[in-house]
Queue: 2 jobs
Job 1
Amino acid sequence: MNLNDPIGTLRGIGPKKQEIFRSAGLETLEDLMLFFPRRYEDRRHVTALRDAEIGKDVLVEAFVLQKRYSGNPYKKNTPLSVLIDDGSARAEVVFFNGRYLAGLFETGVTYAFYGRLTENMGRLQLIHPQFAKAGSPEDLRGILPVYPEIKGVSQKEIRRLQAEIAPLAAELPEWIPEDVVRENRLASPSYAIENIHFPEDGRRVLVSKFRMVFEELFTLQTGLISLKRGNAAVGRGAVIDCSHGDRFASELPFELTEGQKTAWQEIRADLASTRRMNRLLQGDVGSGKTVIAEMAMYAAAMSGLQSVIMAPTELLARQHLKTFEQDLGSRGIRCVLLISSMKKSEKTEVLRAIEEGEAQVVIATHAVLQDNVVFRALGLVITDEQHRFGVDQRRTLSAKNGEANVLVMTATPIPRTLAVIYYGDLDVSQIRTMPAGRQRIHTAKAGKEERRKVYEFAEKEIEKGRQVYVVAPLIEESDKIDASSAEELFKKLQRFFKNRRVALVHGAMKPADKDRVMAGFAAGEVDVLVSTVVIEVGINVPNATVMIIENAERFGLAQMHQLRGRVGRGSEVSYCFLITDSESDLALQRAEIMCRTSDGFEIAEEDLKLRGPGELFGTRQHGIPQLQVSDMLRHADVLEKAQKAARTVLERDPALTAEEDRGLRDKVIAMFGEHLSLDL
Ligand code: ADP
Ligand code: MG
């Protein structure tokens, strides 16, 4: 028996069972060993029936007084009633598939029963409890692990399999360096595994879990830190003369905010050094990240280097092009657009311009990742709205030129602790201040019966010359269905806003059509824009002052925050209405948070509390290893300890080549190997 063996090698596991385990993510004996109980049932103490609490799970020990069928004993599903007595009281044990069980009980013999105690017409009952002959090998006593449910596999079976592979745990070697073990008082891996599956008391479970969580986070942190160092060490970064960026800023019609200034100083220091920049710039929608990007790109161009900004949609790329042509084009910088929907002849020309270095600033979608795009001297790569790109894509782009500095911009603020984990290979800058004069967006929740009032309010705004967004409900992650719901809403709104220009844009439309509608809205030719979430990212129409979100309960906080960020971009007071009838706690809490604050970082922190980090990010997409036993929120304190330990070890042995660090090195490579190339 070996940890890498498939589960199918275990006794009683055929191909069918193996497939069930596989679809639950368990393939090897090691996976099974790391499949930890969700909770434990404490069955160490027998309760007297007289003292037992109704509605609680109890372990009782009682002898059988009599057995009785309450129906035709020859029918298969006849209930069986067993009367038991433990000396303190009597109770009735009921089984529904009685015929099969009847033979298992002998009157006058003592059994242990475990189950929920109920009461029926003054009589104590145990419905379908677990049971075993007292003192038999299957005795129910002890602390019993309860595993996450796998359909088609019983708890009993999982416990049996855990018992079968238990000897493997004894062979697990300690691989964490000795000083770290000592400093953090870590239990050994064999002790930990044994006590997680077969605990003798609660304290041992805690000590054991700590060990397992620590080892996972320790491995993660070691990987992330060395990743970051590797980037820094390998990546000689193109040097950019940032005084040009300073000048650009001084010529702007406004002064940079404090947050922008700090961010620029950090970026500036990276760009001016020979170390390659690898930085994440976080800032709310409208906090002025684009200006910072322009400063950096202008400085790059003036230093004789090309730069590219990659947007997640063609719409956004086009919008950026407009801004960049205005701001950089006017200063003699040649900006080009590269998107997949371009005409072939156009594309050929753009590719040529990029290859020959004529194109100084490239605004692109993921089309720029293709092999046929060759830069002459790429010095800076910026990705906008990072959450749409994975780590791998980011890397592909920077790999096109080893010296290209990397800046990742995101409007989905992430609490700093988490940013360190999810973007562990990046340095982090934050813009937490908004440009002066930016109005707080008045936000209110409205029930469906108040929808009319909301529309009437919107009508008044239109009268004043403003524009309105209405976001159609999110039905599911299918463009088609979302589109049809948007169309329905569109028709309704056309009827309501009879004399207004109402337009529709949704994800199933052709890009060109989408762009046409959006352009019309931007030009003020449309009063009410009905859309699905395609407009979520980055559209800038300062004259829009009302955002109406239908079925707000279907949107996450981050998404609503993004949507709300579409308004309040001009000097006028803006409004956001969350329309929902949902009474669910989550929906109410989210609405309450939205109404209370507009600070994206605060919203992100609340979101994290409500949902937990896994759901918030979809870790897999980010190329960060999937964690098996840890939960970053609950284990924040362990995370800190693990990070500290990782730092200490890497400082002492940067490439982890010493004998005592080999085990760690293997673990890190096993965790990261598939995703990222480590420079260990
Ligand atoms: P982001 O990309 O972070 O969403 P933008 O860079 O698009 O934000 O900025 C939103 C708007 O605010 C733009 O019209 C921009 O010109 C303007 N802006 C940026 N920085 C400032 C500032 N410091 N003061 C005033 N307006 C600013
Ligand atoms: Mg932006």
Note: The chain has 24 helices and 21 strands.
Job 2
Amino acid sequence: MRVILKPNHQQASIWTAHYIANKIKSFAPTSERPFVLGLPTGSTPLEIYAQWIKMYKNGELSFANVITFNMDEYVGLDAQHPQSYHHFMFENLFNHIDIKKENIHILNGVAADLEQECENYEKAIKDCGGIHVFLGGIGEDGHIAFNEPFSSLTSRTRIKTLTSDTIKVNSRFFDNDINKVPHQALTVGVGTLMDAQEVLILASGAKKAKAVYHGIEEPISHKWTISALQNHRHGIIVCDEDAASKLEPETIKYFKDIEK
Ligand code: PGA
């Protein structure tokens, strides 16, 4: 595992945005050989998306031959709902770049058959040849995508019931009213994430420090699904100082040293 330590959220986001942009550029994607990117929603990626929009507008980066798969979507919210992840992605990224609509994949939380929807999603990822880079955030309880504590570390895309903690944390987007937050989501599994060629997780702020600690320093456990990343051949956690604040000083020293 690589751990990249940056002083603040802005610098962590800029590093991540450039790292992935360089991956896309050096891959030189074409329509026959597209770059496949996994994406999250939430507060964490906003600055990364702003950076990519800037790069696209400056002519430095194109998404014309990039295929995307989002991590998750709430059950029961349609694409037009202002708190749906569909809406979030178009507002914060897709409407501002040159991605082709047919290259965008987001789970449909109002599909008539949700299980079939999840199966089709796994198949769509496979049909594209798998994901090159999966970008993600991390929950305060260590979840990656909506893989809440005690999710199977081999799980695939499926329906998940959200924990009360996650519902409470996410209620900030729903007028702070927990009753408005959907109780279920469709999410890629830990196994789906682990199949990506590279997984890059951005963690910012003191609220993520405990999850970062468990992900990096403690044994692999389904209690902290982020810890599955220890078994990935190309896992990267990018942290700002606050998110890294519970790591042992020796750990910080090691990762700073090796990245010099
Ligand atoms: P956040 O959410 O980016 O809004 O902090 C991350 C997550 O819950 O995975």
Note: Residues 9-27 form the longest helix (19 residues).
